[in-house]
Design a protein that fits this description.
heterodimer; A: alpha/beta; 6-stranded mixed sheet; disordered N terminus; B: alpha+beta; Alpha-Beta Plaits; 6 helices; about 20% helix
Amino acid sequence: MKTRRDFIKISSLGLGVATLSASKLNLFESLKSEEDHETEKLFRQPTYCEICFWKCAGWTYFNEKKKIIKVIGNDKDQHSNGRFCPRGTGGIGAYYDEDRLTKPLIREGKAGSQTFREASWDEAFTVIADKLKKIAAESGPENVALIKHGSAGDHFKTLFQAYGTGNISAPSYAQCRGPRVESFKLTFGEDPGSPEQTDIRDTKCLVLIGSHLGENMHNGQVQEMAMAIDKGASIITVDPRYSTVASKSKFWLPIKPATDMALLLAWINVLIEEELYDKQYVEDNTIGFEKLRHHVKRMTPEWAYGITTIKPDVIRKTAREMANAAPAVIVHPGRHVAWYGDDVQRSRAVGILNAILGSWGRKGGYFLREGISVPKFPIPKANKPRWNWKTALNGQFPLASQSPTNVIVEQSIKGNVDEKYRIRGWFVAGTNLPLTLPETDKFEKAVQDLDLFVAVDTMPMEVTGYADVVLPECTYLERYDTIRSSPHREPNIAVRVPAVEPLGDTKPASWMAKELAKKMGLGEFFPYEDYSEVLDWQLKKMGSSLDEMKRIGVKTFPRKTPIYFAEGEKYRFKTPSGKIELYSERMKQLGFSPLPEYTKHEEPPQGFYRLNYGRAPMHSFGRTSNNPNLTDLMSENFLWVNPKVASIWGLKSNQKVWLKNQDGIVSDFPIKVRITERIRWDSVYMVHGFGHNNKKLKRAFGNGANDSQMISKVLIDPIMGATGMRVNFVTFLKNDPA
Amino acid sequence: MVIDTLKCVGCSDCVVACQTENNVPIGYCRDWVVEAVNGTYPQLELEIRTERCNHCENSPCVRCCPTGASHIVEGGVVLVTHDECIGCGACIESCPYDARYQHPEGYVDKCTFCLHRVKDGLLPACVSVCPTRCMYFGDLEDPNSEVSKLLKKRDYKTLAPEAGTNPHIFYLI
């Protein structure tokens, strides 16, 4: 199935070279699809990428000697459209990283000492199973938490549900997307999901609030943004930093940090006052519009100017730009939105803005996602836990639909909760908590109080240094995992099949969960020898098979429902009223403001600068900072400093400085200064995920600084418990404080 | 090759794809990304572009090569025959684009437009992975090719035109 396109005969590009002739070059007549190209010695297996959460489907290519050659995208995949991002392309570095964990490790000596000895899997499992049984007997299985990120978590979730705990948590909720999940559920009755249902490729206007698309390499969205640019869409970027996408925007609004809410409310004001909103859509699909109109009456662009430093005429112009494009307009929900502690409310304002522009369910706005459910492999029903993290919260964070990891940390510290509800053991899979969580002091305190700490990872991360037992996982290129089924424009599934055998003594999480279950007497929950049996059973129920999926990697199913609303359709939203709730009765009942309000946030003290952080396209959190291929592209982070600030402090480019925050915390390592006009004078910026202090990460150790260490203060969102992290201020230390 | 600077986000996927495709040792590269900032906050401009050998029609590297290792092949692609290269480095000095590097094995290396792939009907590795599809590869002599059409329709520039090399990489601006 070679796709033939109109291509080029390359002919004579070099005009000055007399010997050239076009006729010699009839070699290049057809252009094949990359993935159809298997040279005689290369083989391939399907996979989906695990380097970030976007989970792009692709192919792992390897040779006869089972050496992995490259990983590329699958043309049929809606997450990647056949093209991986740099992290996906560099994913082979995760396999080849010579610092990988290869043997189970057991701590020797007391907690906190970083001395481990190698152990057999059997011994490691025995230690874990005995401890888990002991905690279950003394307190209950509920007193153990599973903290997870990524595919490994799926298998351990089955294990810990069988064990009997409901304390299952992922930092991707309260440290990242959580506020957006709850605000969109309040407003539209559903979460925009992952990948988000943003119809960027057909939009006429894309509005980004602090979202740095292109630096956050959310593959499908970055691709669609480029398509939208090609088609002449306008982009409006709100960011105190001149981000990559700001440079591609028709309007860049260099907002004063922490004031986005005022801008959003002023935009709503303009759309209503100038009657630019979608009247029919609002009438057909929303409730609470009059209350909203009244609420934003005084929130004029002039009011917002004093707060945001964005000029009133720019606020009006950009509001009109959105209205002109409507309904093909997207005010992007963002991804990491745990910023200031009022994030659900800010996200609600984003939702409301979309609603009155009529973008939800419309082409170029938010399409309606459709997925396909994967049949559940038959296993016994687990006992319902008697209590979970919610019990001890006593009604705090009422809209937390998932467990905030910061709550699990709090509930693990002695004295914070009734001992009956204290978490005594952590099983951490695929998340490097010391770099992921703010408030490192609380993490360290909790760790001291734990009776068991198990860490599963492919790399010796900081988190593995704290664990009692370390279990070495093989990389995604060496294992089967659960079927990827993410709702999208078309329902689809993708599989992950190992290309090569696991390196050293590493194992897939599916095997670890099964073997540990056997040790704990829970073997009946894992009725298979190899996880491929589960996949084949599920796939056959779906009208496919593992054999078929090995050939195609991705399978797409026809939609059963329309992707957009029909003209004038009155859609039934999954909210209590069945409409988009501009005004939220639910919030009112819970004692929160039913319409978003602007709250003034603390400003940096003299000599301090707000610490903003973000992503680089070639790294995923801190998990890629030792990857040989990706480290070669970027080996450390830099501190972005405005030239005016640099001149006050006498800073030079590439000079190393240590950071000190408002609580007197000093960074473990120095960071090089990047003097750039691209940042405001009231804030500094750094890419997250560097400044590793685990010496076993030979390439990453001590490279750059760790922003999480500087985030010793958080503002917790009272609605669902997210940790607002952009509330820390730092200053520079030019000399080594040690 | 035509590269749209309005779409490039500087992700460097082209760099890592080239390294894997062409066994470029870690620490070296045949292509790279440049970011050029102009102005003062908040009146700013930023151009991001991926750079590599420009496969110049008038190539100083070929002219100064004492052994003939650097040469131009069919299609106008500038190549280095590794066996004939003595690693003198004259070409590295002569290139206004800094496109060449000394391979640890002694010879000089650089972008080949992935001629081995192109001969098989594939795009160069960098073009084939680019998430923003900001790179176009094709026949500049064919007025109906995508690259020719883009150059007709859009404003473009070449790098270091003053060097008189007649480069074959065009940047849409």
